Amino acid sequence: xxxxxxxxxxxxxxxxxxxxxxxxxxxxxxxxxxxxxxxxxxxxxxxxxxxxxxxxxxxxxxxxxxxxxxxxxxxxxxxxxxxxxxxxxxxxxxxxxxxxxxxxxxxxxxxxxxxxxxxxxxxxxxxxxxxxxxxxxxxxxxxxxxxxxxxxxxxxxxxxxxxxxxxxxxxxxxxxxxxxxxxxxxxxxxxxxxxxxxxxxxxxxxxxxxxxxxxxxxxxxxxxxxxxxxxxxxxxxxxxxxxxxxxxxxxxxxxxxxxxxxxxxxxxxxxxxxxxxxxxxxxxxxxxxxxxxxxxxxxxxxxxxxxxxxxxxxxxxxxxxxxxxxxxxxxxxxxxxxxxxxxxxxxxxxxxxxxxxxxxxxxxxxxxxxxxxxxxxxxx
Amino acid sequence: xxxxxxxxxxxxxxxxxxxxxxxxxxxxxxxxxxxxxxxxxxxxxxxxxxxxxxxxxxxxxxxxxxxxxxxxxxxxxxxxxxxxxxxxxxxxxxxxxxxxxxxxxxxxxxxxxxxxxxxxxxxxxxxxxxxxxxxxxxxxxxxxxxxxxxxxxxxxxxxxxxxxxxxxxxxxxxxxxxxxxxxxxxxxxxxxxxxxxxxxxxxxxxxxxxxxxxxxxxxxxxxxxxxxxxxxxxxxxxxxxxxxxxxxxxxxxxxxxxxxxxxxxxxxxxxxxxxxxxxxxxxxxxxxxxxxxxxxxxxxxxxxxxxxxxxxxxxxxxxxxxxxxxxxxxxxxxxxxxxxxxxxxxxxxxxxxxxxxxxxxxxxxxxxxxxxxxxxxxxxxxxxxxxxxxxxxxxxxxxxxxxxxxxxxxxxxxxxxxxxxxxxxxxxxxxxxxxx
Lengths: 380, 436
Hints:
The complex is a heterodimer of chains A (380) and B (436).
Chain A: H1 7-18, H2 29-33, H3 45-54, H4 62-65, H5 73-77, H6 84-97, H7 103-115, E1 144-147, H8 150-154, H9 156-172, E2 176-177, H10 188-193, H11 196-212, E3 217-220, H12 223-231, E4 241-244, H13 245-254, E5 267-270, H14 284-292, E6 296-298, H15 327-337, E7 342-345, H16 348-361, E8 367-370, H17 371-377
Parallel strand pairs in A: 1-2, 1-3, 3-4, 5-6, 5-7, 7-8
Chain B: E1 11-14, H1 18-29, E2 34-37, E3 52-53, E4 58-59, H2 60-73, E5 77-80, E6 83-91, E7 94-101, H3 116-120, E8 124-126, E9 135-137, E10 139-140, E11 152-153, H4 163-167, E12 180-186, E13 188-191, E14 195-197, H5 201-206, E15 215-217, H6 218-225, E16 245-252, H7 268-282, E17 287-292, H8 302-311, E18 315-318, E19 322-326, E20 332-338, E21 344-350, E22 352-357, E23 359-361, E24 396-398, H9 408-427
Parallel strand pairs in B: 1-2, 1-13, 2-5, 13-24, 15-22, 16-17, 16-22, 17-18
Antiparallel strand pairs in B: 3-4, 6-7, 7-12, 8-9, 10-11, 14-23, 19-20, 20-21
Helix pairs in contact in B: 1-2, 1-9, 6-7, 7-8
């Protein structure tokens, strides 16, 4: 069937940050390495790029246009070095600007706009996670700003990560503080969803706030915050030294500042979060931190840069994926297959989805834990 | 090394593959004295290890062996095998190459190549000349048509039982033979150091899925197809099964700026098509698939060769395939985006998969420090269009895959050109080429 190319679409994608679009030679390796192949998903990045190159229709459905989890596996494999995530983002932007947003994401974007978080929670409850804990406020005397992922601020399961990290930081004597409810969501997922204007608003607000407090160094619990703070905030005038909790903890342990007992028993499999591993290039420190608590660290077949995405990036965390088509389900089964008692990770999104799939899979003997939680349990 | 070999030559040729031998023969025929330095125990390079050559389907051994023999018997050519190259320097107008000859543990002057030592040796070792698929002895002639036909003892595996020394009719075995360092000089130098395959690509691109026996390199497939290969027929390495389906993954490292190299390796399309054709002959019932990004059939009669392969029923699939694992029957699982059918991504298994790996320079850096390499690591031609054999150093020439991925035809032509440039240089040395 003959189709007529519509090159204005190509140009619009290129102008919207997807300029690599035309470097693609259509080898299809991106489609082949995509985690959607594990569950017979509909999303084919090669086809979507082709349609974008020629301005053809056919990619507009939620499961295609909003299928990409931005796990970066294709980007690391692309023989032409195409920034495939940038192309996806630009193609989504065209749709989002015209109001084409999946229903479930509308609420997320609306909440981020109104409340500064994607979870439809009131802004003023942002610090509730810290109730009953000694959490210093950030000020000129503090070395680090502790910035918590919205998920760890509001989600009850995820609050455990925040609370554990604070205990560890207090015991290690780290000079840190937090800012109040005026903080926004980092905006990483919002940008990947394609709402560039909202990202600018959220990130712009944060940069203004951070700069007003003269923030230089930031500790984050989410690798998604890590990515956007370190790689994207500089566009808005925010230059910070950003460190992920797992990196900081590994360093503190090495310096002898973490009074760990090393009494954690059992086998722990480590799941590399996409944004910490493939995006951030952090592979060793989380493993070092795990080993510090005495655990026997196991490797799953797919580890480090070959890690399997949990399915939560690129806005997918808030989209409906049938239980049997979730990558996280494959992942918890993989952990059980290698004999792990704990599936440890270092990302609030991964924890949420893995925890969910652990229940779906009925793996009652497997625990899903963040590295911060494991280490806090092992404090003397 | 034999003590009575000369050490001063008109031309030094580094590399005893087909390019180096062709250049050496052309110079020797003009009356120059030539030294050929080879790292292996035999000359012949990659070509002697091939099955057949494209697009003529000539037997590689049959056409390489006469060249090797001619070089070996030519009074103007001296072979230095098992020689690692140290430094190459220019001293008082001469090019001097420091060589380290690894011990053969067999006296070159005494050995008559009778193989009594090999027959007597009780130690079996995987034979890397046959992709490790068959065994050789700890003392052995490298392969049947190796030149020189001299035994070499592998000290890492020798049990020092003494049997070879006992059976040797000429008393050539010398367990205590040391490595020997010496210098040879020439007035001109030809760098013909060839290529190697990017063997670390699979691990980087496929991760744990790369570790499986039936995922092999293109040079290993050459051995499986060679008339004097490991099995005399095509069997897959993992379990000796005759494969019912064989696939080729093209651009495995080539044209890949993330996991490989940015350039095209030029020969892989054609050798994969050739191997596919040969497989159709030896396994008439097998399905043969070539996964490719583009087919580059650039040479004389190459396009027709490609069309013939299609007409023979070889399946060409436009997709870069990903190796994802091993199936229960030992086959290799691939995933690819079947874009031509429009049916979306597919998972498919093949009994045996061949990776057409990228070609890398044979030497990590040019053998002479002053000779420049290009950004791709291959030796830089300063006049790439009109005199590709000229390097950045006067009197130093290059040919074949040392200067960039190249097939045999182009290597032969370039070797002749390099020899001619060297000959002109020697005739007018010191006066500059303009004087000619």
